[in-house]
Amino acid sequence: MIRHLLSAGDLSLDDATLVLDTADEMARLTEGRAVKKLPTLRGRTVVNLFFEDSTRTRTSFELAAKRLSADVVNFSAKGSSLSKGESLKDTALTLEAMGADGVVVRHSASGAPYRLATSGWINACVVNAGDGTHEHPTQALLDAFTMRRHLGELAGKRIVIVGDVLHSRVARSNVLLLATLGAKVTLVAPPTLLPKGVDHWPCGVSYDLDDALAGADAVMMLRVQSERMSAAFFPSAREYSRRYGLDSRRQSLMPPEALVLHPGPMNRGMEITAEVADSARSVIVEQVTNGVYVRMAVLYLMLAGTNTTEEA
């Protein structure tokens, strides 16, 4: 297993399969048990270093580390030295002095986790929990884990990712990971919400959602990230929903066993209707549950038996 998890593209097929298989084992060992704790990371310290607001990702990593019996420190930018102007370097040196074994970092700047991992400021293993509009590798892993549980091996499966690809770190990580796993990915979005260079990504691109849904094994809807938009990328919310929203009519175009996913949080009524989000085909709540198993697997593989004071 790699020392740091910074990008889904860093994972080989063997690495990705190992994480997914280990997550399966974590689920098997903890599902349905009254006491869900395992002793595997006892004595290790995991720091959640979040420079951006987050609820589900931070809580998921915290639960994952605690279920492995690690000591967990939540380090939020608000109310800390970071809000007083402390640099990433000084924060890293502080964590190093405190003896952190693993650092889970979310940052608004793309590349911040890579800087933290490669700067030499800290010897801990680093997990990227989302950096700007760049990547979110553990989200891609939990999405793949969820699909694999329902669809079996993902090689050859047809996955459609719909929506605000331009601002989505989830989309980029999913495309890279699913391509590694052998899936056939199609991005569907208005031209204004596709990034430059998308034609070089290992996926297809379409502007017609109805056409793309017909052969899909799974459809992943992306949130429209209005907070990252400084201009008008589409005429109106109503027009966006009409062209690229998943409603009951569009769901009926999908094969009977096709899954509906969403990384959350959802804009109900915009990219997805409440009826579809709560339908039997939706695995959105299951994604949250599976996120804990996947993050347990990542932390276990990176920290169990390693000596973080040594160079990789």
Automatic annotation (TrEMBL):
GO terms for biological process: 'de novo' pyrimidine nucleobase biosynthetic process; 'de novo' UMP biosynthetic process; amino acid metabolic process. It catalyses: carbamoyl phosphate + L-aspartate = N-carbamoyl-L-aspartate + phosphate + H(+). Coiled coil: none annotated. Heterododecamer (2C3:3R2) of six catalytic PyrB chains organized as two trimers (C3), and six regulatory PyrI chains organized as three dimers (R2). GO terms for cellular component: cytosol. It is an enzyme of class 2 (transferase). Belongs to the aspartate/ornithine carbamoyltransferase superfamily. ATCase family. It comes from Jiangella ureilytica. Its EC number is 2.1.3.2. Keywords: Pyrimidine biosynthesis, Transferase. One of its GO terms (molecular function) is amino acid binding. InterPro entries: Asp/Orn_carbamoyltranf_P-bd (IPR006132), Asp/Orn_carbamoylTrfase (IPR006130), Asp/Orn_carbamoylTrfase_sf (IPR036901), Asp_carbamoyltransf (IPR002082), Asp_carbamoyltransf_Asp/Orn-bd (IPR006131). Residues 3-148 form the Aspartate/ornithine carbamoyltransferase carbamoyl-P binding domain. Pathway: Pyrimidine metabolism; UMP biosynthesis via de novo pathway; (S)-dihydroorotate from bicarbonate: step 2/3. L-aspartate binds at K84, R169, R223. Carbamoyl phosphate binds at R56, T57, R106, H136, Q139, G264, P265. This is Aspartate carbamoyltransferase. It comes from the Bacteria. Catalyzes the condensation of carbamoyl phosphate and aspartate to form carbamoyl aspartate and inorganic phosphate, the committed step in the de novo pyrimidine nucleotide biosynthesis pathway. Residues 156-302 form the Aspartate/ornithine carbamoyltransferase Asp/Orn-binding domain.
